[in-house]
Amino acid sequence: MFSHDATLEFVYDDESRARVVAESVAREIGEIDDDRSQTTIDRNGDTIVLEIDARDVTALRAALNTWFSLLDVAERTATLGDRYAG
């Protein structure tokens, strides 16, 4: 039973950037999840929504740190891609 949760919304300048970032991190869904935390990801237009459910506050904090890091890397990589594609 999961007793702690967090819902995170990330709004991007456009739908294309949100799609690239969401597809990049969505590959980790199921790979990172364990018996202490589960995450889902959805995208609606320019907004990514991550929902994290955890058994305890320590697992929630660990999952939050992981997903923030993954999103940060995906965002920076997309920015570099844009810079070198143009």
Automatic annotation (TrEMBL):
It comes from Natribaculum luteum. This is KEOPS complex subunit Pcc1. Belongs to the CTAG/PCC1 family. It comes from the Archaea. InterPro entries: CTAG/Pcc1 (IPR015419).
